[in-house]
Amino acid sequence: MGVQVGIVGKPNVGKSTFFAAATLSPVETADYPFTTVDPNQGVAHVRTECPCKAFGVECQPRNSSCIDGNRFVPVELIDVAGLVPGAHEGRGLGNKFLDDLRQASVLIHVVDVSGSTDEEGRPCDPGTREPAEDVRFLERELDEWIAGILRRDWDRTAKRASLEKIPAAEVLRERLAGIGVSASDVESAMERAEVPSDLTKWSDEDIRRFAREVRRVNKPMVIAANKIDVECAEENLKRLEEEVEYPVVPTCAEAELALRRAADQGLIRYLPGDSDFEILQEEKLSDEQLQALEFIREKVLKRWGSTGVQEALNRAVFDVAKMIVVYPVENENKLSDSEGRVLPDALLLPEGTMVRELAYNIHTEIGESFNRAILVKPDGSREVVGEDHELEHGDVVKIQTS
Ligand SMILES: Nc1nc2c(ncn2[C@@H]2O[C@H](COP(=O)(O)OP(=O)(O)OP(=O)(O)O)[C@@H](O)[C@H]2O)c(=O)[nH]1
Ligand SMILES: [Mg+2]
């Protein structure tokens, strides 16, 4: 079980650079459209405060890592080919690769906020392209993609459902199961789109409206306003924030990539999401490299607080996909597993997950023999809770079985 985050956007905005910075995997990036054809898949991390700090213990993470009290919890990241207007009609590389986003629970839409790439990703003068238009077109393409899935064989399916008295929601859910749409997603989308309950009465406009609502519940979005380091970006950012309904995070993917690579080689000390870095091996850095680092410090970190890449991931997973991190332990005194590893696992779970579901998540047997759970607090106190208790972000929890 894991969370999948999809990176989307038109060509040449920095999707692969963002991906490379977040996963440290070598991928192709270049200043022309359609550099990426096949999707890149990798592991990125969300950053959260590790309980080891508050508890004053030394942790031994197993499924994640902890650096200076910051827990980095893995999520799956997918970088797909650029999308151009009309992709749903087969333009550019078409939207076949949107199928790679089927299982994504949240999207990071990378936008060139400097406005220096046209609607198809060709370089143009900075400030020429209005970033908000990129957001509108991407919404439209995603909507058409979902509508296209719905329209396949619509008339026959609708008639059959009506004859056999199969509820519309059931038919729609089945149809959209492939893109990870749940029954409750379908119901809330039907309600919001105000569509007829009889599928034979749907117009094409109904399909479209419904598709839009499905996209809004099933593929929620964070905008990474990338290339924030370029002239004009700041003005564009303000307008973009006013015009769209999504969280907007200013990013400089290129800076993040440079910092992470330098940190990886031990040249600097830097953690993703940090607001500054420290040079460790000045003698190994060329003058150009030192200048580039200084540029990043002045123009990106000091101005924006961070490169934004970590923040975009965190907002996508925590704020938009609404996930929490929970730390199950077997020994509530040592905060360890049976092998004595302290705070070994950090689990990403949907907000509202109950203790019982966590128990099943760890093991079916543990779920079946669940007795009660103990929440361990940093001040040494304990709280005993039953199976219906909702877990909270950062909880350290011991499941007791009978
Ligand atoms: N100034 C600036 N340039 C950036 C930034 N991020 C990426 N770029 C540049 O933008 C160009 C496109 O980057 P890619 O990561 O290949 O873009 P992409 O969206 O994956 O492009 P396609 O695969 O063609 O769709 C490259 O020249 C990058 O170096 C940034 O934060 N600032
Ligand atoms: Mg790419």
UniProtKB/TrEMBL annotation:
Leader sequence segment: none
SUPFAM superfamilies assigned: P-loop containing nucleoside triphosphate hydrolases, TGS-like
Domain OBG-type G residue range list: 3-271
Keywords tagged on the record: GTP-binding, Nucleotide-binding
Pfam name, any one: TGS
GO cellular component: cytoplasm
GO molecular function: ATP hydrolysis activity; GTP binding
The organism's place on the tree of life at top rank: Archaea
PANTHER family in alphabetical order: OBG GTPASE FAMILY, OBG-TYPE G DOMAIN-CONTAINING PROTEIN
NCBIfam families: PRK09602.1
Protein name as it appears in the record: Predicted GTPase, probable translation factor
Organism of provenance: Methanopyrus kandleri (strain AV19 / DSM 6324 / JCM 9639 / NBRC 100938)
